[in-house]
Amino acid sequence: MLGLLHIENIAVIQKTDVDFREGFNVLTGETGAGKSIIIDSIGALLGERTSRDLIRSGERFAAVSGWFTAPGEKAEKILAEAGAELSPDGTLSLERRLYADGRNVCRANGSPISLATLKELGACLVSIHGQHDSRVLLDPAVHIGILDGFAANTDLKSAYSAELAKLKDIRKRQKAVLSDAGERERRASILEFQINELESAALMPGELEELEKSRKLMRDSEKLASALKCAAGELGDEENSVSERLASAAGFVRTVGDALGEEMAAAAAALEEAALTVRDCAERVDIALENLNFSERDIDRIEDRLAALSSIRKKYGGSIESAIEYLDRAKDELASLENYEDAAKALEEEYRTQYEITLAAAKNLSANRASAAKKLEAAVCGELEYLCMAGAKFRVQLDPRQRDGRVIFGNDGIDVAEFFLAANRGEGFRPLARSASGGELSRVMLALCTAGGSEDNSPGTLIFDEIDTGISGIAASRVADRLARLSRDTQVLCVTHLSQLAASASAHFLIRKGAVGDRTVTEVTELDREGRISEIARINAGEGFSEAIRAAAAEQLASAARRTEELL
């Protein structure tokens, strides 16, 4: 539900706050006072396309923000995907700033979001219906979506879409396999060259690191050999080596061990152990010196191998591992090309199987639509009769989407839907585009909204912008009744010129245009009972209304309250 709406520097609105209520909210005012600007501002907040002309003349930016309660699980999921979240109290604040240089800054609970995310959030929070939206009913392309909304077909459509995606993937693979022979030969030739190159390279994971380590060792070998030779010199030759001198010292100490006790025996053992350790170290130094004896051929071999691996890495993904993976894929693709006839047959069988699965999912969706269409027809006819279109008949025509007798899988199934209307008793059905006046279209749209059966994730706020165009009298009262009934479960905002709708609302906002200095400004005020009576009298009689007209307006307000209480 939309709570507080803040508007700043939009058209003639300098700055205003509108605190909408639960239930049925109406906005009234003279023509040109700025009612449409309120709706345009909400549209901007919901991510709709806007023009820089919306920014108040002379201002650098325009801003609109709104606070929503109970935004729902879908909105929460969209927020999470955008890196934002609900406030601790479960509310959601949205903000959009429009700059004169064309920039848009959008936020959700203070976190930056994209305009696309704002639009996605707006779609699950608010639905705007107006004169333009009722004209949308003239486009049969939207009718299937309206029927699906009534039928709660989200799960069935998702299941169908998943199977259709699989079918399209198989078809894509078929086209790749069944490409022309010349292309297959060219591709096979390329793959054969690449496979030979990679297999000849005899790639091994980790080889690059080992080669680079060896190259560094070769480059440092002279310095390392010098250090080892010094160590060997300190250790001495075999006849006068450190280990021999230690062993000799151990022998002398051991001869006096019996006379001097255990300490000398331990010293002799330690000297013998040290002699062994030094002898082992000397052998290791000798081996290391031998291993540092590199030839120019050894150095050239490593440099050549590193250059070859560098070339391979540049061609096949940047690493030895990616080149090995590419080799495996290339072998598989080459095998597929060489056995394309077998692959084509396998894919054809896979396509036939998936086609039947997709068709079954489409037929499940179609069956649910057909059942829902009958219920929607009955519900809308009942609503139209109540809305003073007695004798009018509404029909949903469902036809298979076909070409030359063959089923065509569309993104929304295999059906084409179109609404037909017989506006008056005794008339035949005609497409809605050729059978309804503006007032009739408004009532058909309201009938579709109030027929029931909407999806669980439907928006929590419905906005009706002058959908009462072309109606009056009893029909206007009936429209007011239906909007009031709609507001039992959903917040309703309605811009109207009819006193019947204004009197039936639970909250009434007056939009007035005035002057501050040399600038025109629009203000929005929530009316109390006396203010509502005066505004209803103005709607009915214009300026300068009499006390009798004011009294009639008071009675109309009281009567509407009693009627709404009975309906609810």
How would you describe what is shown here?
There is one protein chain. This protein is an alpha+beta fold. Helix content is 56%, strand content 18%. The chain contains 20 helices and 17 strands. The strands form 4 sheets. Strands 2-1-4-5-6-7 form a 6-stranded antiparallel β-sheet, covered by helices on one side. Strand 5 and strand 6 form a beta hairpin. Helix 6 packs antiparallel against helix 15 and helix 16 runs parallel beside helix 17. The longest helix has 47 residues. 30% of the residues are buried.
In short:
The chain has 568 residues and is an alpha+beta fold. The chain has 20 helices and 17 strands. Strand 5 (92-99) and strand 6 (104-108) form a beta hairpin.
Describe the secondary-structure layout.
Layout: E1 2-10, E2 13-19, E3 24-28, H1 35-45, E4 61-68, H2 73-81, E5 92-99, E6 104-108, E7 111-113, H3 115-125, E8 126-130, H4 131-136, H5 143-151, H6 154-177, H7 181-201, H8 207-219, H9 221-235, H10 242-255, H11 257-260, H12 262-291, H13 296-315, H14 320-338, H15 340-386, E9 393-400, E10 402-403, E11 406-407, E12 415-422, E13 430-431, H16 438-450, E14 461-465, H17 473-486, E15 491-495, H18 499-504, E16 507-516, E17 519-526, H19 529-541, H20 547-567
Parallel strand pairs: 3-15, 3-16, 8-14, 14-15
Antiparallel strand pairs: 1-2, 1-4, 4-5, 5-6, 6-7, 9-12, 10-11, 12-13, 16-17
Helix pairs in contact: 2-3, 5-15, 6-15, 7-14, 8-13, 9-12, 10-12, 14-15, 15-16, 16-17, 19-20
